[in-house]
Amino acid sequence: MSRNKKTAAALLMVTILMIVIPVVALKGAAFGGSDDAGSVMAKEIAGVYEPWFAPVLETVIGGEVPGELESLLFCIQTGIGVGVIAFCMGRMVERKKWTDERGGRASIMNKELTDDRCRDHNFSHTG
Fold first, then answer.
1. Distance from CA of residue 113 to its chain's centroid?
2. What is the pTM of this model?
3. Structural domain boundaries of the chain?
C-alpha cells in the first residue's frame, strides 16, 4: 500500500472515531446546536434574557420555520459552499498545471507571454 493510501486510510479512521466515540461514550446525552445553548447560558447568568431580534424568515412567515424547510435551506447553503470550495481548488490545480507547463511562474502580464500572443495574432506590442 502506498504512503498516500496509508495516510488517507488513517485520516478516514480518525474521522470515523471522532464521530463514533462521543456518541458511544456519552449515551443519552443531548446533542444540540450552539444557537439555543447561548440563550440558555445567558438566562442562567443574567436571569432575564430577551433576544435582540427575531430570525428574518420566522418574521416573514409569522411563525417558526418548519424543520423540512430549515433542512432544505441548510442543504442549499452547504451545496453552494462546497461548489465554491471545489471551484477554487480546481482553479488552483489547473493554475499549477498551466504554470508547470510554462516552466515556472507565468503571468498574463509577463512580457514574454504578451509578445507570444501578439505574434500569434499578428498584433504589435509596444512596451
1. 34
2. 0.44
3. 69-127
